[in-house]
Specification:
heterodimer, A: mainly alpha, 14 helices, B: six-stranded mixed β-sheet, four-stranded antiparallel β-sheet, globular
């Protein structure tokens, strides 16, 4: 119970409440939700229509296949939309305080540097989670057709939320580093592009290069480069194709990462791609939060010596 | 309550503070005066724990600022020379937010916010969105923000800048009220006549060095050679004015007499008894309507003690 309360106290942060009120009173908040659901709904409907029309040409098409293709398309489209929204929400979180000239006043309050970073991250992420929650009925409708199981449904959303968290944390780091929101936003989008598209392309390219090098390109059992395992698109693909597909030993991943030869290592736990992706995103998030805290802390005067108990002087 | 000893601070090659020292006793209002770039804001930011020092010691309530910034933040209410406000928050929500940031218990936040809004005369605007308030109201709200944790020391950086005369008077009265509540206040400003009326202590800083510091009267007596008095007569006719000029010129201690249209201004030396002069004028039949020191002595001292301001690089 006390652990639960401790977790809850992490959300008792004035910045979360303030940013939540401020954001939800803006006309942009309902507009963004409408736009998000509109795009997702239109895309889902378009895929559904295409899938139904394609049944005229394939006699084997079933309701489950239609449901599966709609769900897969929606999951990827949602991941793309969230990747676009996350930098926009987080990249101005701290630099915006500086631009608004409210940052110094926050720094002279009792809120710690971690409290500022955590509050800003949760406030940004809360809105993304709201977007994901509002889209749940769209995804749930796919269950009417079948073709997708509950585990895939959950894992697809875990991957989406973790991707939002990691992109949000990295964007927050840039927001803490840059004084202005514009460079923070541009850098955040560049980083997001690298994380979502860059690692995917680079991972596949390296996979094929190694496969050709080792002469296994024609074989069906070639192994993916570790860079691909950190990519949410790849992890999502594997989850939707098979929830526990292609597990790999940690030792083998390290072998592939450092291009060491020899027999495939069986050291360490065997991990599915989605777990590796989530682990990579958690590490990235932790590093980004740590860096942001250091940057925010650097804006304050630090204690010069060990803090000693000091009592206020008596009245003069 | 506030003590600054041999404070030095450098931004690159620019020496922002050079052995700055002063002290502010408990319950006093300290006017921190200097031209742009003199080092006022740097000093205040150091006291507010927002900037480190290169050397020297700054203490608030006996606590060295560099040793225990967290404890100092408990004692200090800081109002920067700019005021940032959040959009789409009401005045009461704005103060509740900062009360939460300063660790005020949830059950007390609303009451503290409402009391402070009353104190700064914004009680009737409690539900107005902050960005719709006038500049003067925003300044008062920002002062209320600095008070949410009931600090013993207030650091006010140019609190009246950009305000119209009415808002300045309101801000001045508010600062006086805070002194009556026992706060020790350091206030920087360029509006010298107001500081003269408001402050009990004053410090002049120029190019990072303190050039004069102490109780207001002492500093004024030390740096102003002679005092100027303005005398208005009931009938400012030429013969009456000439007679008054002659009476004044013959009086010992009067250094100079100037006829300035419908009134006279005189310069008197150190320790001159103004009441005796007024009684003398009345005895001599000079029809005095008003007799008062000329405002702007502090300005004169300021101009004498400080050179032209040098803009510092942005920080």
């Amino acid at each position: 119970m006390s652990r639960f309360l401790a977790v809850l106290s992490g959300f008792d942060n004035p910045l979360i409440v303030k940013d939540g009120i401020s954001r939800m009173r803006s006309w942009r908040a309902p507009l963004a939700i409408t736009l998000y659901l509109g795009l997702l709904g239109a895309f889902g409907y378009a895929i559904f229509t295409i899938a139904v029309l394609s049944t005229q040409f394939t006699r084997t098409a079933s309701s489950a296949q239609i449901g599966g293709s709609v769900f897969v398309s929606l999951a990827f489209f949602q991941l793309a939309l969230i990747s676009l929204f996350a930098p926009a929400l987080a990249a101005g979180a701290i630099s915006g305080e500086r631009e608004r000239q409210t940052f110094d006043v926050l720094l002279v309050s009792r809120v710690s540097a971690f409290g500022i970073v955590w509050g800003k991250l949760v406030a940004s992420l809360a809105y993304l989670v709201l977007l994901i929650l509002t889209a749940l009925p769209l995804f749930a409708a796919v269950f009417l057709f079948g073709g997708i199981d509950f585990e895939q449904f959950v894992l697809a959303h875990v991957l989406t939320i973790m991707t939002a968290l990691s992109i949000g944390a990295v964007s927050l780091f840039w927001s803490a580093l840059f004084r202005r929101s514009l460079p923070a936003t541009v850098t955040s989008y560049a980083t997001t592009f690298f994380l979502v598209v860059g690692t995917f392309v680079a991972g596949l390219l390296l996979t094929y290069i190694y496969a050709f090098r080792d002469g296994v390109a024609a074989a069906s059992n070639f192994e993916f480069h570790p860079l691909a395992y950190g990519n949410p698109l790849f992890a999502m693909y594997v989850v939707l194709a098979s929830p526990s597909g292609a597990p790999v030993h940690l030792g083998r991943l390290l072998q592939l990462l450092f291009m060491s030869g020899g027999d495939p290592s069986r050291w360490g736990p065997e991990l599915e791609p989605w777990k590796l992706c989530v682990a990579f995103e958690m590490i990235l998030t932790a590093l980004a939060i740590f860096g942001s805290v250091l940057l925010v802390r650097g804006r304050r005067a630090m204690p010069l010596r060990r803090v000693r108990p000091a009592m206020p002087e008596p009245a003069a | 309550m506030i003590s600054v000893e041999r404070l030095r601070k450098r931004y690159g090659r620019q020496l922002a503070l050079d052995d700055v020292s002063f002290a502010v006793p408990k319950g006093e209002i300290f006017g921190f005066v200097g031209p742009n770039g003199a080092g006022k804001t740097t000093t205040i930011r150091i006291l507010a724990t927002l900037a480190p020092t290169d050397s020297g010691l700054a203490t608030i309530g006996g606590i060295p600022v560099g040793d225990d910034p967290s404890a100092v933040r408990e004692l200090v209410g800081y109002m920067p020379d700019f005021f940032g406000v959040y959009d789409r928050l009401t005045a009461v929500e704005y103060l509740e937010f900062y009360a939460a940031c300063h660790g005020v218990a949830r059950s007390r936040r609303r009451r503290v916010a409402l009391e402070l809004l009353e104190l700064v005369d914004l009680g009737d605007r409690r539900d107005a969105q902050v960005d719709t308030l006038s500049r003067g109201m925003k300044q008062r709200l920002c002062l209320a923000r600095a008070l949410v944790h009931d600090p013993r020391v207030l650091l006010l950086d140019e609190p009246a800048s950009g305000l119209d005369p009415r808002a300045r008077v309101e801000m001045r009265e508010l600062v006086r009220e805070l002194r009556r509540m026992g706060k020790t206040i350091l206030v920087s400003s360029h509006i010298l006549p107001e500081l003269e009326e408001l402050c009990t202590w004053v410090g002049f800083i120029d190019r990072g060095r303190m050039v004069a510091v102490g109780p207001m009267e002492q500093v004024r007596d030390r740096v102003v050679v002679g005092r100027r008095l303005r005398i208005e007569l009931v009938q400012p006719e030429e013969s009456v004015m000439r007679n008054a000029e002659q009476v004044l010129s013959e009086r010992q201690g009067v250094l100079a007499v100037d006829l300035l249209g419908d009134h006279l201004e005189i310069t008197v030396g150190e320790g001159f008894e103004e009441a005796e002069l007024l009684a003398h004028l009345v005895r001599e039949g000079v029809p005095v309507r008003s007799f008062a020191p000329v405002a702007g002595d502090l300005s004169e001292a300021f101009m004498r003690l400080t050179g032209p301001g040098e803009e510092r690089p942005p920080r």
